[in-house]
Specification:
heterotrimer, A alpha/beta, B mainly alpha, C mainly alpha, A: alpha/beta, Rossmann fold, 6-stranded parallel beta sheet, 10 helices, 50% helix, 12% strand, B: mainly alpha
């Protein structure tokens, strides 16, 4: 082990670190005040989910599982809002639930905001089932009887006989489920839901776990994926309602370019030092 | 003793066997049995929450009692918990005593919206700064593998943002960089993830068999 | 051994304290600057107070970027407490009350219905209570009855589910190259060489990636000769995938920061469009 760093070296390290933090903060903040004007085209995987939702007839049920908590809300909140706006635009009956107890509050915010825009009422136009523990067992339960799994909705109204659940007795009566995930719930929905009860499954997820879902896209177990804030922005573009995800893309572009330049600059310096004749390997 | 170890292990095997076999039984009784069992686990799951609650409270009580380093901060854990549980209980009593009009102020929701959400979201957003700093300080193309990692990361980072399409337009093909990023995700990345899933799945199956046959017993907890 | 820390002199600490006091007053001034919105309801100040508290907590959390400090620790522990309380109330509202209390004591119209519901729920309620004995050193063996039922069910159910979803369904498309080589193409489709070659090249890459990565993780056989080349190929595939994961991770974390910045600039300070 080499000699411990001197205080001067530690101070230099701290200054470098803080300069980078400041650059990142500026890169994120600047686009709030000026428009970089970058256009983008939605990804084919996002279009697949959009087209599937478009194909549902008015009055059809669609199950949305918002399995995330405040740690992932900046990516998945705009995604969920865009999806619900699309559902209400097409007069579908969204059934909203979550497997994460910390996600109940956010899910409530999203659905009440989207419903208020179109004067939709709980029980009549949508159902907010909120949370129940059980995870995969809950999905199996819902596959046999939705009303058995959730006897009441979040507003304490009985689900039996609810107009928004007309014709829906279990997951077998739902043709499309979209799960927004910050963890492993997408895999759980595939294994215990889609492969068992035969509905189409779309996924939305944080950018961190997007690479893990590509095997399921390739095998057809997922019809499409909305990956991270970009996925949310793509969906906003498709529903023709630019909101926080679209605005966030400007800051995303600038920050990514900054980080790429930092990496390339550091590597250029590293390679230059390696090629100098007096530098050791 | 047989009732502390043998019976639980036999129950585990029997339960696993029933769960495995009933998957292949198309009779309605199998579906009814599954519905009953999943209802049981839903109810039991509600009780499990209190184990986590006790564990966390016990940790902080011990810290305060023994006056360990940073013990004073544990008081804020209790403050937050008491405020939130108190707000929740107040709302339950309020709803039981009288009709609460729609849109009435909810202190429970207020604490969630303005304390839990900003704290949790901010803690995770700090990672953006750390990633940028760590990438600058440590990400070096020291060998072929590291160079591949670097190139792949740069291609994906650039291809997934709109500015890459603007740059592509200037170069004559707007979708060059997004397509490169998509190709990386759909081919080499997908192959690796699939291989990892296959490996994990085979491991999970073997671990499940070990649990069912009583070879793996760590879930039983301490004692005999 | 702990990592060496940058030390601070008393002068620097005094300067930091002065800056903190100035920042505190600047925070109060900035919070007060945004007045009552036009047409706001009478209780608008509750939401505004919430935004100010949220902004304060956000900035306290970000103070960790400068250095770990008591304010950050207070905010962190307060959040843990609030999250804990939220989980307790939610478990009561969403699980225990609708599953146990309402069916037993609120909904049943007569005593016979109560006994019916109790009979149906007695086993899971007893098993749930037994779960809690895990906290007692002497009685924790009782919790094994509950755990073995849950673990056994999960393990038994997981085997066919894992084989179907993660093995068979994943192997099928991986072997697409073989089915194409055996002539499994749509009838009447005449593809030119280039448009036929690209998907096959993609399938070759996928198959090569899967085999080489699986081989790399197979440590029972020494990786020498041809095996060494396959293992090295696996490492290269892994590096490409890790790079893609890193790129996506950066994207995810930056998105979180963008959201918080939007909150501070727009919701708190009222700046920007």
């Amino acid at each position: 082990m080499g000699a411990p760093p001197t205080q001067a070296a530690l101070r230099r390290l701290a200054v470098t670190r803080r300069i980078i933090y400041l650059l990142v903060a500026v890169a994120v903040a600047v686009p709030s005040f000026c428009d970089l004007g970058c256009e983008f085209k939605p990804s084919p995987w996002v279009e697949k989910i959009f087209k599937k939702v478009e194909s549902l007839k008015p009055g059809s049920p669609i199950l949305l599982s918002f399995d995330f908590d405040p740690a992932a809300m900046e990516e998945l909140y705009p995604m969920g809002l865009a999806l619900l706006r699309h559902c209400f635009q097409n007069d579908l009956h969204p059934i909203l639930m979550t497997h994460w107890p910390g996600g109940v509050g956010i899910s409530k915010q999203i659905i009440e905001k989207a419903a208020k825009e179109r004067d939709k009422l709980p029980g009549r136009d949508y159902v907010f089932l909120a949370f129940k523990p059980g995870y995969s067992n809950l999905v199996l339960n819902m596959g046999e009887s939705l009303q058995g799994a959730f006897s009441r909705d979040f507003y304490n109204q009985p689900t039996a006989g609810m107009p928004a659940l007309e014709g829906v007795r279990s997951l077998k009566d739902i043709s499309l489920v979209v799960g927004l995930a910050a963890g492993a719930t997408t895999e759980m929905w595939i294994a215990y839901g889609r492969d068992r009860f035969g509905f189409d499954l779309g996924a939305g997820c944080t950018a961190v776990i997007t690479p893990d879902l590509y095997p399921f896209l390739n095998s057809g177990q997922l019809i499409g994926v909305l990956g991270g804030l970009r996925g949310a922005a793509d969906y906003e573009k498709l529903v023709k309602r630019a909101d926080r995800a679209t605005k966030g893309m400007q800051a995303q572009s600038l920050t990514h370019v900054l980080i790429i330049l930092l990496i390339l600059g550091a590597n250029a310096h590293y390679l230059w030092r390696r090629t100098r004749p007096n530098e050791k390997g | 003793m047989w009732y502390k170890l043998t019976i639980p292990l036999v129950m585990c095997f029997a339960m696993g066997l029933v769960a495995f076999v009933h998957e292949f039984v198309p009779h309605p009784w199998a579906a009814a049995f599954r519905e009953e069992m999943t209802t049981w686990f839903r109810i039991m799951g509600g009780f499990a929450m209190f184990i986590g609650l006790y564990a966390l409270l016990h940790l902080h009580v011990t810290r305060i009692r023994r006056q360990q380093a940073g013990w004073a901060y544990s008081a804020f854990v209790f403050l937050g918990a008491v405020l939130t549980i108190g707000a929740g209980v107040f709302e339950e009593i309020r709803a039981a005593v009288r009709d609460v009009p729609e849109g009435a102020f909810s202190p429970f929701d207020w604490l969630y919206d303005y304390v839990q959400v900003p704290c949790q979201a901010t803690i995770f957003s700090i990672l953006a700064f750390f990633m940028a700093s760590a990438a600058f300080r440590t990400f070096r193309a020291r060998n072929v593998g590291a160079a591949l990692l670097l190139v792949s990361a740069v291609v994906v980072m650039f291809g997934r943002v709109p500015i890459s399409e603007e740059v592509g337009r200037m170069l004559g093909a707007w979708d060059t960089f997004p397509r490169a990023a998509d190709w990386l995700m759909e081919y080499p990345n997908m192959a690796v993830k699939r291989a990892i899933f296959l490996g994990i799945s085979l491991g999970a199956i073997s671990q499940s068999l070990r649990v069912l046959f009583g070879i793996e017993r760590s879930y039983l907890g301490g004692g005999s | 051994m702990a990592a060496p820390q940058e030390t601070t002199s008393p002068t620097r600490r005094t300067a930091e304290l002065v800056v903190l006091v100035v920042l505190f007053f600047a925070f109060l001034a900035a919070s007060a600057a945004k007045g009552r919105p036009v047409g706001a309801p009478d209780d608008w100040w509750l939401a505004r107070l919430g935004v100010v508290v949220a902004a304060g907590l956000t900035l306290i959390m970000y103070s960790f970027l400068y250095r770990d400090n008591p304010l950050f620790k207070i905010g962190e522990n307060l959040f843990v407490g609030v999250a804990l309380g939220y989980g307790v109330i939610l478990t009561w509202r969403q699980s225990l009350r609708p599953e146990i209390i309402d069916p037993l004591f609120v909904d049943p119209p007569h005593i016979h219905a109560f006994w019916m519901e109790l009979a149906r729920r007695s086993a899971p309620i007893v098993l749930g209570i037994l779960l809690l004995t895990r906290l007692s050193r002497r009685a924790s063996w009782l919790s094994r009855y509950s755990y073995t039922i849950m673990v056994g069910w999960g393990a038994g159910l997981g085997i066919p589910v894992t084989i179907h979803t993660y093995v068979l369904q994943q192997l099928k498309p991986s072997l697409g190259l073989i089915s194409k080589a055996l002539g499994d193409t749509p009838a009447g489709q005449q593809a030119d060489l280039w448009s036929a070659a690209l998907p096959i090249l993609g399938d070759v890459i996928i198959l090569a990636g899967i085999v080489s990565v699986l081989f790399y993780f197979f440590f029972s056989v020494e990786h020498k000769g041809a095996g060494s080349f396959v293992s090295q190929l696996g490492i290269w595939f892994l590096m490409v995938a890790f790079g893609a994961s890193f790129g996506n991770t950066v994207m995810g974390r930056v998105s979180l920061l963008i959201g918080r910045m939007r909150f501070l600039l727009h919701d708190w300070l009222g700046l920007g469009p």
